[in-house]
Amino acid sequence: MSRAQVSGWPDRRGAVHAEWTKLRTTGSTLWLLAAVVVLTAALSALVTSTARCPAVGCGQDPARISLAGIEFGQAAVAVLAVLAVSAEFSTGMIATTFTAMPRRGTVLAAKAAVVSGLVLAAGAAAVLVSVLAGRLILPGHGFTPAHGHPLLSLADGPVLRAAAGSVLYLALIALLSLGAAAALRDSAVAIGVVLGLLYVFPVIASVASDPHWQRHLQQIGPMSAGLAIQATTGLHGLPVSPWAGLGVLAAWAAAALLAGGLLLARRDA
Amino acid sequence: MTGTMAPFRPAPPEGSDGFAQLLRSEWTKFRTVRGWVIGMLAAALVIVALGLLPGMKGSCGQHGPGSACSVAVGPGGEPVSDSFRFVHQPLTGNGSITVRVTALAGLLPGAPAGRDALAGTRRGVAPWAKAGLIIKANLKSGSAYAAVLVTGSHGVRMQYNYTGDIAGRPGAVSAAPPRWLRLTRAGGTVTGYQSADGTHWSRLGAVHLAGLPAAVQVGLFTTSPQYTQAAGPSGASGGPTQATAQFDHLRLQGYGRPADGGWASTGMGGAVSASPEPDGGFRHDGGSFTVTGSGDIAPATSGAAGFGATIAETLIGTFAGLVAVVVVAAMFVTAEYRRGLIRVTLAASPRRGRVLAAKALVTAAAAFAAGLAAAAIVVTFGQRVLRGNGVFVYPASGLTELRVIAGTAAVLAVAAVLALAIGALLRRSAGAVAAVIVVIVLPYLLAVTALPVGPARWLLRVTPAAAFAVQQTMPQYPQVSGLYTPAEGFYPLAPWAGFAVLCGYAAAALALAVFLLNRRDA
User: Fold this and answer.
1) Which of residues 172-211 of A touch B (CB under 8 A)?
2) What pLDDT score was predicted for residue B411?
3) What is the ipTM of this complex?
4) Do B232 and A79 touch (CB under 8 A)?
């Protein structure tokens, strides 16, 4: 018997497989993934059906409107990712996990791989449904080629970037939530911090009457910066360019994962 | 060695099955968990910190003379705008003034979607452009007045002391048919009349202006307010406008002293105009008068059409505080499920509905206390910080401030009950916290950032976010054109009606939670 078999420590693939089994057999996972798709598509369709483009130059961004549901769907993503970590802390399962896999960083990385894979799949479905809804609904509301808005199509470069970026956005939200949950351990606190960061930040930015402050807040807020990836019109007026905005969110996610990983490694489970 | 040893059962202490005892035990649970107490304190602290944070607001008065941080105050103590072109002469004692209006034209800002509104102008009259007769106590801004006037698209009106508004004959003014207007002063009472032909007059209304001096200023006026329209979800386009009115058949009859016939033209207030006023705003040509003006005689509004901040904006930290309260309240019940303590709790007090009621009361009271202290500090000192930074803050009456403080605390308390109830329903804190944040904060965020005005208002009627109406301090005047949108702090429901929406959701969730708690195994 080789040493690895004696000790029974799984390698990275084993870690991912273990996390996949845990997440797959948790009842709430499927519900939450379905919620990501349903909530995103529902809010996208709602916002799309209220948008109007009465004339040429109505100044609206059809891609952003048809992907607005991401703001709703990300809540389910955050819950899914937070639960993937904090559920183990609340049941005490984490002690078993860390006994089986003492490399805690590997555990977190495996969780990140599994959760972001699932979120990418659900996010892709959600975004496809949203874009389809926009493609069907928007032309009836004045978003016509005559008003300067061609039919929403993924063959269009900026629209494809908005759609694929939205899927990446959801995956980054999952990583941010995962890191926050690893750092905070309690699910209620973690979800409160993540959703507060996402939703309350732009609310506070919206009342900052000083335009410079408002711009800076929009540049550093994880949601307002990350959703810049959805912009297809008026790119020069954006507080932060699409990919740079997604980069800001990636920095938030990386910081959260780093903090979570360090705290996991240093603290008792 | 058996024996029938009865297990030792201490006699239950007096009143241990009472609701007061239940409350006490729940309060003990709450206050002995350090994280929960810290959470409530954090909620209060974040509200105070965001309310008193300096530099959050731009400083007015530093961007040229048009941004000065002073506003006229009307006879009723409310902030008013009082800028118009006034062609006037003094009138001592009682008297009457009559005029015929034959035209009202104007200029509006350029293309509505244009980025810079001042780039060009187009012909058109603002809906609330006003021209007519006015009797005003003196030439100071904010002094008492009464006026009969024609408007761009709201017909003939009689308006007085900024907030008073009486509707007259509808329809736009033109050469055929013109509008005849008359104002009569008798002591402190001013009566307004309208006519289509100058012979058959109908009375619009009589108003008493308190403290009207013997010598007043009477004459013609024209003004045209800021034009605003919603452009996209949260943006607004617009800019200054201008109106020009044609008058003739002007007749001033003074009972005390004959009028000397010399008309002086004064630009009242410091209004910004769409373009330079031709002829200095006034031309007298034979019997006809042409008066051009810009501005408004009306209560001042905040938001896109006006300037300045309201108390509600200093309380923006309520959203952050709400998140902390929701987390604590959800954990107050879900932690018992996690640790299994709920079985002990329910064994000690088998009437499960009362357990949940006691928990709801304890969290609501804690959230109310935290919110009350924080809101009181912010409303009292936040305005001073803003004023110290040179920001104009719209004054609110003491009663309104009390309503905002108590309302903010009550919103936090009821949100805590909602979170507790959903926590008891789901028995999982992550789902409960996410659900409550999503139903309260997300609708508000969508309403101010993503949705057009119509759906945004609808959302703020039917979702728990309606409760933030308790923080609205600016009244909405039908006779003042402004952007009364959620993004500008105007809610579709009255303050306590909006609060009642949140209460409805909380009550429904709590009832369902009690029902399920009684049916399910713990």
Assistant:
1) 186-192, 195-196, 199-200, 202-204, 206-211
2) 95
3) 0.88
4) no
Residue ranges in B233-340 assigned as alpha helix (H): 311-314, 318-339
> Do the bridges between strand B72-73 and strand B79-82 make them parallel or antiparallel, or are there none, so unpaired?
antiparallel
Rounded CA separation B130/B126 (Å): 9
Is residue B458's pLDDT more than 80?
A: yes
> What average pLDDT does this structure show over B509-513?
94
What is the CB neighbour count within 10 angstroms for residue B29? 18
**Burial (0-12, 13-18, 19+ Cβ within 10 Å), A255:** middle
What digits encode the pLDDT tens for the residues B345-378?
A: 888 888 888 889 999 999 999 999 999 999 999 9
**What is the tens place of the pLDDT at every residue in B129-149?**
899 999 998 888 888 899 999
Predicted TM-score (pTM) of this structure: 0.82
> How far A206 CA sits from the closest chain B CA (Å)?
8
Contact B442 A75 (CB under 8 A): yes
Cα–Cα separations (whole angstroms), residue B87 to B40, B133, B176, B217, B283: 61, 10, 24, 9, 10
Closest CA relative to residue B100, chosen from B194, B22, B6, B169: B194
Report the distance separating Cα A32 and Cα B188, nearest Å.
Answer: 71
Best residue in B422, B438, B448, B453 for a mutation probing chain A (most A CBs within 10 Å): B438
- pLDDT, position B259: 52
Q: A interface mutation test: which of B328, B441, B462 has the most A CBs within 10 A?
A: B441
For residue B454, list chain A residues with Cβ-Cβ distance below 8 A: 50
Per the model's pLDDT, the better-predicted residue between B304 and A139 turns out to be: A139
Q: What is the CA radius of gyration of chain A?
A: 20
What local confidence, expressed as pLDDT, does residue B321 receive? 94
**Which one of A72, A191, A206 has the shortest CB-CB distance to B430?**
A191
Q: How many CB pairs under 8 A join A and B?
A: 128
Name the maximum alpha-carbon separation found in chain A.
76
Residues A227-245: tens digit of each pLDDT: 999 888 877 778 888 899 9
Among A175, A132, A168, A173, which Cα is nearest to A242's?
A168
Q: Taking the CB of residue A137, how many other CB atoms lie within 10 A of it?
A: 20
Residue A97 tokens, joined: 């996990």
Q: How far is CA B423 from the centre of its chain?
A: 34
How would residue B464 be classed by pLDDT, with cut points 50, 70 and 90? Answer: very high
Tokens in use for A10? Answer: 């799984």
- Terminal C-alpha separation, chain B: 38
B130 and B224 Cβ atoms separated by less than 8 Å = yes
Higher pLDDT, B410 or B274: B410
Asked whether B230 and B236 are in contact (CB, 8 A), the reply is yes
Dump the DSSP string for B219-249: EEEEE-PPEEEEETTTEEEEE--EEEEEEEE
Contact B316 A204 (CB under 8 A): yes
The nearest CA of chain B is from the CA of A12 a distance in Å of 29
Quote the pLDDT of residue B323: 94
Q: How far is A52 from chain B (nearest CA, A)?
A: 8
Nearest residue on chain B to A201, judged by CA atoms?
B320
Give Dmax (Cα) for chain B.
Answer: 128
| pLDDT exceeds cutoff 80 at B47 | yes
Cβ separation B445–A79 shorter than 8 A = no
Residue in A closest to B386 by C-alpha: A209
Contact B309 A209 (CB under 8 A): yes
Residues in A 28-67 with any Cβ partner in B closer than 8 A: 28, 43, 46-47, 50-52, 57-60
Q: What average pLDDT does range A166-194 have in this prediction?
A: 93
The answer to whether the Cβ–Cβ distance between A188 and B330 falls below 8 Å is yes
- Distance from the Cα of B67 to chain A's closest Cα (Å) equals 14
